[in-house]
Q: What sequence folds into this?
């Protein structure tokens, strides 16, 4: 049994999501990502089942494990009670811990995701927050949302939200003592260590690619090579 | 009563949820994009039906989006969840009602994992004590907010001033229902009707006079995919999934779509705009799109609330064709007014998608 496999097997999502795969391919048949990307969860589970560390390492360094949308449609349908999506979560976690995520284009996207989502949680107490939802980065939100964001104080008040206000309500100001508790949770539960690991590995990769961190952030957020898609 | 045949099978897919006394956990995405839906959830359950729902300011994100975007470890996500449970416990509540489907899945995943691995629950309790000096009881019941509206759908119907019926023809409106993936795909026994026959939204539609459309891609994901949306480079995945659903439902001519997930109504609405900009194609009648509503927005329309109080002006797809079919009264001139009727101008018009 290989070391990477052993580490993977310690993850509770792996324990929950991986029993014995019979390679029937039901997960792939129902998977929205498999239709769109060059992605086959059946093959991933089969690779892991072989417990070959070299193959698992290759997987951890690849784009493949980052294609899943974690909709968990596979979890409903597997006749053996596996959840390929949960296994993917364990693989991604291990890829980050080992620093392998920067080897692939899709893996490197962990950096902008961490910047925005972890940044929002620790600064505002929300995963998504109007002040960091720039229209320029979300043109698909349409002219209606461009208009709304330009008038968000009045707009949110019109809709009964408590934007940046004290007390309960939608988009209320999360108090400093509550934010401090979130930070303390990150510190004791590995969240801070993982954020620092993402930051450190991304800085190393940016150097290797000859980019400043700002350039690396934009590049990883925006760049998409055509190699990922089904024909 | 002795259940047999289909009745027996159907009873296995039901869940009996408490009638009252809930702690409300809000949703990150809904607070951003559908704040009025959360307001009207409270208005309907507390104000209209007289239920006891606690809306506490100290709870935060559950971390679910960050967790499913793989930016925080499972232990961090679970400790944030534990803090939510602790605040609920401190407020004296045992039932948790959750605005977000991702959170609903997150809370259920946490509880189910702890049930199987008690040592992990012990570790998370230790984490929470170290970080926050808080303790908690696991909720006796975790419901999604749409479960409560489903439970009280007939009471809402009894108080309704509008029906899901075309006022000109008398025919039931044709409604597509779209259920968020993490409602019952992960833990089928947690949702009304399970993953096979989820009825949380179809039950509302039928109770309020509409007809549910069955179509091939009914259970396909909207395409959110967490990292697939939050990274600009990946959004082709999202729009492709939505496109697949719209192409599949188009031949059935839906009058509207009802959803129970925070992201789904946003994506099913906005990607219609993107598809129209990219291809010129629209899916509603006469160049309009198909309106996509949250269940609170639809319940609010049935109960006669003002559509602009419900926030329908923040949808990209114009809702007026639906309002006209139902016979909902509205003031077109008030659509884009800010608070206290402030003039905050109007959005620009899309190139193809017809808007009022």
A:
């Amino acid at each position: 049994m290989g070391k990477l496999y052993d580490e993977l097997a310690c993850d509770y999502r792996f324990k929950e999501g991986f029993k014995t795969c019979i390679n029937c391919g039901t997960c792939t048949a129902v998977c929205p990502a498999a239709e769109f990307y060059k992605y086959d969860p059946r093959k991933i589970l089969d690779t892991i089942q072989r417990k070959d560390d070299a193959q698992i390492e290759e997987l951890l360094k690849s784009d493949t494990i980052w294609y899943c949308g974690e909709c968990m449609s596979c979890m409903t349908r597997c006749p053996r009670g596996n959840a390929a999506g949960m296994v993917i979560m364990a693989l991604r976690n291990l890829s980050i811990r080992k620093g392998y995520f920067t080897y692939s284009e899709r893996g490197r996207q962990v950096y902008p995701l961490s910047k925005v989502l972890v940044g929002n949680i620790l600064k505002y107490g929300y995963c998504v927050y109007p002040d960091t939802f720039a229209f320029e980065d979300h043109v698909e939100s349409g002219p209606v949302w461009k208009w709304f964001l330009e008038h968000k104080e009045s707009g949110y008040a019109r809709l009964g939200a408590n934007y940046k206000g004290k007390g309960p309500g939608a988009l209320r100001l999360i108090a400093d003592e509550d934010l401090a508790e979130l930070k303390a949770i990150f510190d004791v539960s590995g969240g801070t260590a993982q954020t620092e690991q993402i930051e450190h590995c991304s800085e190393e990769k940016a150097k290797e690619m000859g980019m400043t961190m700002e350039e690396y952030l934009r590049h990883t957020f925006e760049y998409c090579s055509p190699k990922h898609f089904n024909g | 009563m002795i259940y047999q045949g289909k009745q027996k099978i159907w009873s296995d897919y039901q869940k009996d949820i408490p009638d009252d006394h809930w702690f409300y956990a809000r949703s990150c995405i809904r607070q951003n994009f559908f704040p009025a839906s959360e307001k009207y959830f409270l208005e309907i359950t507390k104000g209209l039906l007289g239920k006891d729902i606690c809306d506490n300011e100290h709870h935060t994100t559950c971390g679910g989006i960050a967790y499913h975007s793989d930016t925080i470890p499972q232990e961090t996500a679970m400790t944030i969840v534990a803090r939510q449970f602790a605040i609920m416990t401190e407020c004296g509540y045992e039932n948790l009602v959750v605005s977000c489907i991702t959170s609903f899945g997150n809370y259920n995943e946490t509880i189910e994992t702890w049930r199987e691995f008690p040592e992990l629950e012990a570790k998370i309790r230790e984490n929470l004590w170290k970080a926050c000096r808080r303790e908690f009881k696991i909720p006796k019941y975790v419901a999604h907010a749409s479960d409560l509206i489903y439970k009280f759908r007939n009471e809402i119907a009894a108080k309704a001033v509008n029906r899901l019926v075309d006022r000109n023809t008398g025919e039931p409106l044709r409604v597509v229902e779209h259920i968020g993936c993490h409602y019952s795909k992960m833990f089928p026994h947690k949702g009304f009707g399970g993953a096979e026959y989820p009825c949380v939204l179809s039950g509302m539609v039928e109770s309020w006079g509409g007809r549910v459309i069955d179509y091939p891609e009914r259970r396909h994901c909207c395409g959110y995919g967490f990292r697939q949306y939050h990274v600009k480079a990946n959004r082709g995945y999202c729009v492709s999934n939505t496109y697949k659903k719209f192409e599949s439902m188009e031949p059935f001519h839906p009058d509207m779509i009802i959803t129970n997930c925070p992201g789904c109504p946003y994506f099913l609405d906005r990607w219609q705009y993107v598809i129209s900009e990219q291809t010129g194609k629209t899916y509603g009648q006469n160049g309009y799109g198909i309106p996509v509503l949250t269940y609170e927005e639809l319940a609010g329309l049935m109960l006669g609330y003002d559509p602009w109080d419900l926030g329908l002006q923040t949808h990209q797809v114009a809702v007026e064709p639906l309002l006209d079919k139902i016979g909902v009264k509205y003031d077109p001139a008030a659509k884009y007014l800010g608070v206290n009727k402030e003039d905050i101008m109007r959005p620009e018009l899309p190139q193809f998608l017809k808007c009022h």
